Amino acid sequence: MRKLPYAAGVVALLAAFAWLAWTVKGGGPTAFDDAVGSRLRGLRSDGLTAFFEALSPLVSTTVFAVLLVLFAALFAFVFKKRLEPLLLILNLAVAFGLYKGLKSVFERPRPSADALIHASGSSFPSGNALMSASFYGLVAYLLYRQLKRSAPGLAWTIALLGIALVLLIGVSRVYLGVHYPTDILAGYAVGGAWTIVCAALAAKRA
């Protein structure tokens, strides 16, 4: 791929984030937040709640640290790659800084009612959405690139599972009542933009 599609993707996602930031500048929920949030919370059941609660540890600092070591080792020692382990470390470090920094800028209060779990800090953008889109998105992309010729079926399966995981993590935060939908979309926009930057760096070595 040429540089233009990467740049266009980054610009589009950052423009989407800027628009979302403008729409939530008052701090309260938008009409979109109310409509989508109430629809998802209306689906609550014991089984679905248990499922979505089980996704929360996947964006914990401990799990990210363990997975970073595992995937960095996979690329370094199994696939004999030098750039990919460094990209994974850089990706996770920058994503963490972005979500901490942006939250401190916007300081949007979290939804005040119907939360099924405890979550601290401000709401916009969603750190879970940003971090999952960034890290899991890059892992899926790098594995897809590595396997697309030798095992195309496995490569596509990993890519689709990565997308599904990121989407489910975002949905879970709204379902559990700790984020507005616009928080999730903003996290996806920033995390996705950063993933594209990392993907472009990886593609330069292709």
Molecular structure report:
There is one protein chain. The chain is mainly alpha-helical and 206 residues long. The protein has one domain (3-203). 74% of the residues lie in helices and 0% in strands. Helix 1 (3-23) runs antiparallel to helix 8 (181-203) and helix 5 packs antiparallel against helix 6. The longest helix is centred in the middle third of the chain and has 24 residues, at 83-106. The chain is globular, with a radius of gyration of 17 Å. The termini are close together.
How many domains? 1
What is the chain-wise order of helices and strands?
HHHHHHHH
Question: Could you report the average pLDDT, rounded to the nearest whole number?
Answer: 94
Number of strands: 0
Largest sheet: none
Q: In terms of per-residue confidence, which ranges show pLDDT below 50 for 5 or more consecutive residues?
A: none
Choose one word for the global shape. globular
Estimate the helix proportion, in percent: over 70%
Summarize the structure.
With 206 residues, the chain is an all-alpha fold. Helices cover 74% and strands 0% of the residues. It has one domain.
How is the topology of this model organized?
Layout lengths: L2 H21 L7 H11 L4 H10 L5 H18 L4 H24 L20 H21 L4 H24 L5 H23 L3
What attributes does this structure have?
single chain, 206 residues, mainly alpha, 8 helices
